[in-house]
């Protein structure tokens, strides 16, 4: 108990001393369709058939305007709670340790519509109003519009892209007044932890490009904690696939190794993180893709079978268009071809748009 | 009874071409424009100078769009203008999500016009179409 307290104090001090990066999650929606370029950090942990999705929503200011995010989910969350205070920061430090605080970390180491969308859950966490919705893309968009969100022009297509696979969405918006009363400043984040039972985990990535221009760079850090090295679809650069699955540009596997005991024990003592078992595999993926390229999600298979779902990765429509839903290996080339064609098409559209401006 | 049936049949036959848009003035003057995924379908059309066209603009998206006819310069002026302009002038309509609007417009001279949406970010996203006005 004492060791836990010491760890908590040391970690809190460490993170308060460091500059905390700005986090955001999902497709950020704001008045006038304006775009806030922020780096997203997400943890997707998968253990015993349950996905633990931890991300942070960043407060982007007050002034009476309503700001929020929409996050597609792979299933209905059984629990939505405030995330721990240091989980995301600790993972960032694990892969990007700042040299100037080695001593401090050493100290930590020595211690331990038509139809309407159906509302499934509503809760408030700090100044964040959270609603979990079930519905088609149009239904969720209508709910968002009726509740003061100003959706960007690509929202109808992107929400349909997700709803065709999983009709569950989380909408989060800051109550500006409460945020200011609680002393939140622009850039402050509120971590949220979703517990989602699902047989086929995936991490939403395409939603990060919502409201962005085709050439805009989307940057994100994705951490995965799984029982064993996961199989991923599409494959990030650096992923050694045994089949010919598509490897996409802009997604890079930076680290893939057994998570060390210190990291796991640090995470385990954070709020809501006691689910972490003794052994886990850590994968660290960076996203650095243009909005036009980011038209997929990241599907995982941590069972050892090595077959992440094409549907969960959002690649099903590409397969259907190509008229072959057989083995993934045979389909890899057509999928790459479809991606290439989509990329060329998007580049042409982007050029036309620039010309039109 | 037989005579009455014959009259009904003849009336139906006479009404058929207009109902199906099979030709005549009514067909030439009515165009259906769909808005889907923040794009116009079709994205280009051709009309005759002096022609008055009725546009049935169907917004299949859950978000609001606009249908504004004008030259490229006028479109840029709209783009820089007040985002809350209700657009009620000739050849202009604001259409809520899932609704349809009817817009009548006379094309006085030959040239090229655009139809566009100036909801924030929509024009830049590519929500515009081209009207070629022929002599």
Short description:
The complex is a heterodimer of chains A (357) and B (135). Chain A is built from nine helices and 16 strands. By secondary structure, chain A is of the alpha+beta class.
Structure write-up:
The complex is a heterodimer of chains A (357) and B (135). Chain A has helices at residues 2-17, 87-95, 102-110, 137-146, 155-163, 176-181, 261-268, 316-321, 328-356, and strands spanning 27-29, 40-47, 50-58, 68-73, 79-82, 118-125, 128-134, 168-174, 189-197, 202-203, 217-226, 231-233, 235-237, 247-258, 281-290, 298-301. Chain A has 357 residues and is of the alpha+beta class. Chain A has a single domain (2-308), classed as Baculovirus p35 (Sandwich), CATH 2.60.250. In chain A, helix 1 (2-17) runs antiparallel to helix 3 and helix 4 packs across helix 5. Chain A is globular and about 45 Å long. Chain A contains 9 helices and 16 strands. Chain A has an 8-stranded mixed β-sheet, covered by helices on one side. A 5-stranded antiparallel β-sheet of chain A has the order 1-4-8-7-6. Chain A has a 3-stranded antiparallel β-sheet with strand order 10-16-12, with no helix packed on it. In chain A, strand 6 and strand 7 form a beta hairpin. Chain A is 29% helix and 29% strand. By secondary structure, chain B is an alpha+beta fold. Chain B has a single domain, classed as Immunoglobulin-like, CATH 2.60.40. Chain B is built from 4 helices and 9 strands. A 5-stranded mixed β-sheet of chain B has the order 3-9-8-5-6, covered by helices on one side. A 4-stranded mixed β-sheet of chain B has the order 2-1-4-7. The A-B interface holds A 32-34, 114, 137-139, 141-142, 145, 150-157, 160, 211, 213, 349, 352-353, 356-357 and B 36-38, 61-64, 83, 97-98, 117, 119-128.
């Amino acid at each position: 108990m004492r060791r836990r307290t010491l760890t908590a104090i040391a970690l809190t001090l460490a993170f308060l001393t460091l500059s905390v990066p700005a986090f955001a999650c999902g497709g950020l929606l704001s008045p006038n369709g304006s775009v806030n370029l922020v780096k997203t950090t997400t943890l997707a942990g998968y253990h015993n058939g349950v996905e633990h999705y931890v991300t942070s929503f960043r407060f982007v200011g007050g002034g009476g305007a309503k700001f929020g995010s929409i996050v597609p989910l792979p299933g209905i969350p059984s629990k939505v709670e405030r995330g721990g205070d240091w989980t995301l920061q600790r993972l960032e430090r694990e892969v990007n340790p700042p040299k100037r605080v080695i001593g401090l970390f050493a100290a930590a180491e020595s211690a331990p519509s038509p139809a309407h969308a159906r509302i499934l859950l509503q809760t408030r966490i700090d100044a964040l109003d959270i609603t979990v919705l079930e519905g088609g893309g149009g239904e969720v968009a209508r709910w968002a519009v009726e509740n003061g969100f100003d959706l960007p022009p690509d929202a109808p297509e992107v929400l349909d892209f997700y709803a065709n696979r999983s009709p569950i969405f989380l909408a989060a918006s800051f109550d500006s007044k409460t945020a200011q009363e609680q002393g939140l400043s622009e850039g402050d984040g509120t971590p949220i932890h979703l517990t989602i039972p699902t047989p086929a985990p995936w991490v939403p990535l395409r939603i990060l490009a919502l409201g962005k221009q085709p050439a805009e760079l989307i940057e994100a850090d994705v951490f995965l904690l799984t029982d064993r090295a996961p199989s991923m679809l599409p494959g990030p650069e650096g992923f050694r696939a045994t089949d010919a699955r598509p490897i996409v540009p802009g997604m890079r596997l930076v680290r893939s190794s057994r998570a060390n005991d210190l990291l796991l024990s640090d995470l385990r003592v954070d709020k809501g993180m006691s689910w972490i078992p003794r052994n886990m595999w850590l994968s660290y993926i960076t996203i650095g893709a243009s909005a036009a390229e980011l038209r997929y999600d990241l599907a995982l298979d941590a069972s050892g079978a090595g077959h992440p779902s094409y549907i969960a990765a959002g690649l099903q429509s590409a397969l259907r268009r190509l008229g072959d839903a057989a083995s993934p290996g045979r389909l890899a080339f057509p999928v790459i071809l479809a991606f290439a064609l989509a990329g060329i098409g998007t580049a042409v559209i982007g050029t036309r748009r620039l010309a039109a401006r | 009874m037989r005579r009455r049936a014959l009259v009904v049949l003849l009336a139906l036959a006479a009404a058929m071409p207009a109902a199906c848009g099979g030709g005549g003035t009514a067909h030439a003057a009515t165009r259906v424009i769909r808005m889907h995924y923040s794009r116009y379908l079709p994205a280009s059309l051709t009309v005759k100078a002096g022609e008055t066209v009725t546009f049935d603009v169907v917004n299949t998206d859950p978000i609001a769009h606009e249908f504004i006819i004008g030259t490229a310069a006028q479109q840029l002026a709209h783009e820089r203008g007040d985002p809350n302009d209700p657009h009620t002038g000739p050849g202009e309509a604001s259409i809520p999500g899932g609704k349809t609007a009817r817009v009548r417009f006379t094309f006085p001279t030959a040239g090229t016009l655009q139809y566009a949406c100036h909801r924030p970010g929509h024009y830049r996203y590519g929500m515009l179409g081209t009207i070629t006005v022929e002599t």
